[in-house]
Every structure is written in structure tokens, then in C-alpha cells.
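Internal ticket #5521
Category: modeling
Description: The requester needs a full-assembly model to guide mutagenesis choices. All entity lines are attached below as received. Residue total reported by intake: 542.
Assigned to: D.W.
Attached entities:
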Amino acid sequence: MMLVNGQPCDSVSALDRGLSYGDGLFETIRFEFGKAPLWARHMQRLAAGCERLRIPMPDAEGLWQEAQQVGSGQARFVLRITLTRGLGERGYAPPVFAAPTRIVAAFPMPAISRELFTGGIRLHRCRTLLADQPLLAGIKHLNRLEQVLARAEWNDPAIGEGLLCDSHGHAISATAANLFAVVDGVSVTPALDRCGVAGVARAELLEAFPACQVRDLPLHETLRASELFLSSSVRGILPVQAVGDTVYAPGPVVRAMQQHWLGLGFAMEQA
Amino acid sequence: MMLVNGQPCDSVSALDRGLSYGDGLFETIRFEFGKAPLWARHMQRLAAGCERLRIPMPDAEGLWQEAQQVGSGQARFVLRITLTRGLGERGYAPPVFAAPTRIVAAFPMPAISRELFTGGIRLHRCRTLLADQPLLAGIKHLNRLEQVLARAEWNDPAIGEGLLCDSHGHAISATAANLFAVVDGVSVTPALDRCGVAGVARAELLEAFPACQVRDLPLHETLRASELFLSSSVRGILPVQAVGDTVYAPGPVVRAMQQHWLGLGFAMEQA
């Protein structure tokens, strides 16, 4: 089920700036049994994106009620909130008075096996490099062609994600998850001030594990890390089993972070 | 009037990947009295974009007929063709069999005064810098937040465009037009292999004036150019009068290119 500006509807105007220019933001939020443990963080990131793009932030309480409405009767679902700058004349200039378009839709939870949670996921090393754009880094905007191109690089179902680097040889993230490494006994997650999306699960882990460093992470450090894992607000905390031919074993850091994740109220697996 | 996949319609599915990820391309094409002198070049660029993004190219003859249909009865209009990868499941992976969405819509021609054509246009120097992304450079894709941010930097109606640079100090383009400069007596237009959109009017001028160089154009050369002008397939060839406090006078090169433009069958001004 889907609501557009609060009304049951599954279409938007072909003149919406979200479609014309990718002029908007989105969030994907995991719900289990009526609860979304990271809801407040999703709202914080959406508000930060709205401020960056100067789109009025919708009322979070209203979004919550719309989420309940579209997810009604589903034990588990992924909520996608899309917020665009709304209708516009032809041309890049944002309208002086924007009337944003708000799309709230429920999708089935992706299947996540216990094996993935315990044994880990295999990564393709993407040739697509993320461009440096500090003005858009961190927020979850609708300009996602880099991720589409990167995700199109493989179709082997045994490979679950791709490792994305920037043009300076730093590891940044997966296509739809953040990256953590344990290098010389220290937990690290890449700085995201030039590219990448600052994930909500990543923010949760950084607050729960304040010793984790946020810094540039050269690819060569990533490849010699003692642990490598991904965080996603939908898929949770997943160990990386391999990047191409480089193999990793899940270690104590990812297990501690997975325990924290389960403690938030998320399940380990999804049928 | 608007056609979506050939049918009169003014909306698209809220699940369209054009909206979800900006996963698509567009063209804006100037029509006068049933003719679009640059039509073949627009089709070439659209095909190049389709190949880059691996979206099936629609039949150009069919697009032409849809253009005639939506523009029927209008002496002058701007046609926008938007082509997206179509519907998709949630997630970046492109569907194996894409059924693209094709939106063909007619918009009023923007007003262009003879004064602008003869005297020129004022440019704001944008703080927004274009990111280097060779995989997306040149094509007219739907990820246009950089242009939206740049265009939002000014609202003085006396300023007609913005000068966009990359992060290496090269001038690249305006927000919605290409840039030409005459430096030390030589015509130059910036190389667009790392960022920017390779305009159809620019391609026309490069073919008609083969002495024009395509190379990196440092901002300092742009600022000391003897002539500076913009090319746009909608607005034509417009001299630049000023970039901030740096003033320019239209010279023989822009006048020659404007004569070429008029020779294609475009009018000088639009009411």
C-alpha cells in the first residue's frame, strides 16, 4: 500500500522534480511488529537532508501515522519514504514556494538467512568509483546513478554486495550499506564528508561503540583488516566473508555489534 | 500535452526508477513551426546515454511522431523527452528485462529577448563545484542535484545563468548551457569527460567551426577571455556580458556562431 501526500495513490505527476532532476530525498526503514527501533535516527537524517536541499521537512508524527497505515497488518515490512521538492516548471531553479511530494510505501522485507548473519556475505570489488561531492555527501538524496551502475557490475547471486571506493583509493561503503573494518585492533568506518551515505545503522553503532574511529580508510587497509562488516538499517550487521579473492572471518567486533543490533529489537533472520 | 508510453497521461508510477534513483535520461528540444533543426543530434545523445546506462533506446521515428502529437497547434515549443529504466523492485539492481518509461511533453518556449541575443547575459559565479564522474560525464541523465543547488545560489532576475567550475579550477559550463571562450584569439570549449553535459548546440558548433578547441579551460583563462558565450539547444547562442564583476563584450566569434545558429532555422528572439 502507498500514500502520496496522505492519499491512497500509486502515481505522481510526470512534472515532479523528483523525477525530472532527482530533486529529493528518501529513507528506507525496517519495521517489525509495529516497531521501528531506528525511527528517530531516520527522521534526523531526513531533516538533515531537507536542510541541505532546502526542502521543508514534513511532520515526523504525521509520517509515523502514515507508516502505520501503509504497513497495517504486516508483521515485518520495509517502509520507503520519498520526499521530493514537488512540482516545478521546466528548469533547474527551485520554485520559491515548494510544495513537497511525500510518498510513503510499504515493501516486503528482503529475505535474510541466519547463515548470512553468522557466516557473512561476499563482496564484488566495484570498478565504479564514487565522485567527491561534499555538498551532497552523507545525505540520502535521489541521485543514485552511481549506485545503480555499481550494482549492475555483477549478477552472480552468490555475491551479496559491492565494495565502493572513491577516486583517491579509499574504501567508502557498499552499494546499499556502510562499511566497518578492524585494522590493527581498532574499529574504523570511513569518513563520509566527500561521498557516500551516512547510514542510520552506522550512526547507531558509532554511538554505541564510541571507540570506533571515523576516518579515511585506504583500500589497502581494508584488504588487510582482521574483520570487515556492513551495516544497513534494513539488513542489519553482516560480516564480510570475502572481497573478490580476499577472505575474512567474522571476529569479536562484528559479533558485539550484532548483539547490540539484536538488543535494539531486530530479529537475526527473515524468512 | 503529454504522452506517457504513447498514451495521453500526466503521471507515472511512484515506483518508477526515474523517481526512485534518477535512473534515466532526458532531452529538451526546441521546435519552431514543426521543425527541430537539432533533432538528429538529440537522438544521437539520447542513444549514447542509453548505451552508457544500458537502457533500451526507443525508436526515434516513434519519438518524432509523439513530438508532433504533443506539440500539435503550437508554433513554438520546447519538447522534453524523459526516458527512465521503468518500474523496478526496491533496490539498486537494474531489472534484467527493463521496460523503459517514455514521457514526451511540450512546454512553452522561454522568452528570449533580442537584447539578450545581441547584448548578452550576466553570469553568477557558482560556489557549487561539479564533481568528477567520468562514467556519467557528457550524457544528460536525471541526476541533476548539482545543477539545482547551483541554480539556487542566486535569484536576482538580472542574472541569467551561473558559471560552474570543477574542483580543479576549470570552468565547465553554465547550469543549463555550454560555455565557449576566445582565449588568445583561439575559440575553446571545455572538455566534458569528467563532468558536465555535452550539449547538442555545442556539438553543432564544434562541427561547424572545427578550429574550436576542446580542452581543459582554467577559470583564470576564462576570466581573461576576449569573448565568452553560452550555447543551449533551447536558448541558442548568447554572449556573456559579465561574470560577477568581470565584463565582456560580444565579439566576432560569437557573432559568427550566432549567424550559423540563425542559418539552422532558429529565430533570434522569442516573445
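Resolution: model delivered.
Comment from assignee: Residues 114-263 of chain B form a domain with the D-amino Acid Aminotransferase; Chain A, domain 2 fold (CATH 3.20.10.10).
Ticket closed.
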